[in-house]
Write a structure and sequence with these properties.
With about 220 residues, this protein is mainly β. The chain contains one helix and 19 strands. It has one helix at about 1-20, and strands at about 25-30, 40-45, 45-50, 55-60, 65-75, 80-85, 90-95, 100-110, 115, 120-125, 130, 135, 150, 155-160, 165-170, 185, 185-190, 190-200, 205-215. The strands form five sheets. Strands 3, 5, 6, 8, 9 and 10 form a six-stranded mixed sheet that branches. It has a five-stranded mixed sheet with strand order 12-19-18-14-15, with no helix packed on it.
Amino acid sequence: MFLTGLLVSCMFGMMQLWMQDVVPVAVLLSENGQIPEEETVLQAGESYAGAAPLEFRFSVDEDANCRYEWNFARDAAFNDIFLSRYESETIYSFAESGQFFVRLIVTDTESEETLTSDVFMIQIAESELKVPNAFSPNGDGVNDVFKVSHKSLVRFQAYIFNRWGQELYRWNLSHIDDGWDGTAHGRQVPEGVYFIVVEAEGADGVKYNIKGDINILR
């Protein structure tokens, strides 16, 4: 009896040590098209609210004796799992608004003991797009570049035209924060009124079709 109890105690202790080694983390790689200036690291059980596209790297210290299964779900009970991946590290970009839940299931291949981690909760904000109607590219460092204000967009295309309908400039989601510096073909355009057309779509499915004027003041 003593030996049996000692064996059970040792096995329980080894399991406890194994469980302590399984600490999945999530590192924020980019949010709303921007790479963060400071590193954000979440441990399982923590949550993050941000704007799409929101990209995280989920990982855990790898053990050759373990199998890994990441579950991505739309509900906390994991009845609606939309993605499963089978590696110790995986990268995923959240591109829809709403709440998402991520967990890691680790199985020891020798003992077949299974551990399910605490849950990461990721919340993606609804989309937003605001287009200003004036800027002053005069080199004073204030409002020199025409930029839109945006959040949780998954598609964006903008076009600038002059009064004769000639396209002067265009930019897309990859360069959304570059904006327009008031030049065309390498030259500053004259002061006056120009026209903008924006076609975009939010992570929440909202479609934006915006047409308006831009006043350039020098």
